[in-house]
Amino acid sequence: MLNSKLLLSSLLLLTLVACTKNEKTNNVELTGSETSIIGGEKADANSPVTASTVSLIYNYQGKPYSICTGTLISKNLVLTAAHCLAELQGAEIFVHLGEVLPTEVDETKLLRIAEFETHKEYHLVYNEQGFPVTGRNDVALIKLLLDAPEGAVPVPVLDESVELKAGETLLLAGYGLLNEIDNPIPATGLNLVRVPLAKLWESILVTDQTNAKGACSGDSGGPAYLETSKGLVVVGITRGPHDLAPDCRHFGEYTNASMFKTFILEEAAAMGADAPVFTTERQ
Q1: 3-state SS assignment for residue 28
Q2: Which family does it belong to (predicted)?
Q3: In a domain, 279, yes or no
Q4: Considering only CA atoms, which of 263, 77, 73, 255 is closest in space to residue 164?
Q5: What tens digit of pLDDT does each residue of 215-225 get?
Q6: Which domain holds residue 117?
Q7: Per-residue model confidence as pLDDT tens digits over 6-53
Q8: Is residue 278 in a domain?
Q9: 26 in a domain, yes or no?
């Protein structure tokens, strides 16, 4: 198990990369909602989002902490962000499926991890003041020790041949903060929200969260879904704020999952995991 110093270091890394500074914003007022990622709604137990979205649970001194979110992309493979796992080698981490977060480390209900792999070229990009402004290759895979239980539904990944366009609606999901300004409010379960895609920037999807709706701290690694006639398709992996946004109410960054098709397939094969499906379905 990690010691306290390493845990704090890991959580600090998550705060710098994937979350926000607790500062007021002058351009967007609080919505008053306490049942959202930011401005969204609770996920229902029978929702397709609940069947495919997972929480990464860290066992710290016998207590479960939800540190990030992920997406089930095959019966034993979870897609998440590299920054969620980069400092957690040797830690006791579980995967949790369900609309309500666990309050105890019950190993009969949490899913054990066999191994995980982060992208070998993952790195942060800093500005002249030494502040991390974005991340490159922020993608990782988790192989479950056993197949996901009955009721879990792996989702396909959008194929690299399909082009996304600004203005499309993305469905975001995660177990992160409900409010990040002044007094952070942690979530007790899975929440979802719909936002427009603002632009595509290199290997990153930029989401418009200026209506006080979007992903926040703890949602890192979680999905941006397209809702199609055949079900959910994952297109993005929650990465962090865009363009030095001071909170979750400006623009967010998502790693474009389709651009990492080779990494996903090669690492899945190397770990002996069930291969995910890449689809061209988008409507």
Answers
A1: coil
A2: Belongs to the peptidase S1 family.
A3: no
A4: 255
A5: 776 688 999 99
A6: 4-19+32-272
A7: 443 444 344 334 433 333 333 333 233 333 356 778 899 999 999 999
A8: no
A9: no
